[in-house]
Amino acid sequence: MLETGAARGEVASWLPLGNLYANELGDPDAAEAAYRSGIAAGDGHSHHNLAVLLLDRGDLDRAEFHLRLGAASGDALAAAALRRLLEED
Per its UniProt record, what InterPro entries does this chain match (predicted)? Predict the structure, then answer.
């Protein structure tokens, strides 16, 4: 169903689809593609989830970039994660 919604252009489908790929199916590449599609479609919350994926891969610079964008879009989780990341440095 999520893939169908995403194919129809339903912005709200991309984030849970990415989570499904990342958390249930163990496919981080597909998760990244879904999060990026969500971002391209205007879902600011997808920045946070993409950042978490990037952090897991050790890509701190790109993770920080996406956390900043997510925080700027009003995502409280992204803002909190950004604060934690900056405190670690």
Answer: TPR-like_helical_dom_sf
Given this model, what pLDDT does residue 6 score?
A: 63
- Residue 1 pLDDT > 90: no
**Number of domains the chain contains:** 1
pLDDT averaged over the chain? 92
Which domain, by its residues, includes 45? Answer: 2-88
Two tokens, residue 40? 């391209």
Query: What is the SS3 assignment for 58?
Result: coil
CA 28, CA 20: separation in Å to the nearest integer?
A: 10
pTM value?
0.89
Cβ within 8 Å of residue 64, ≥6 positions away: 51, 82, 85, 86
| CATH number of the domain enclosing 52 | 1.25.40.10
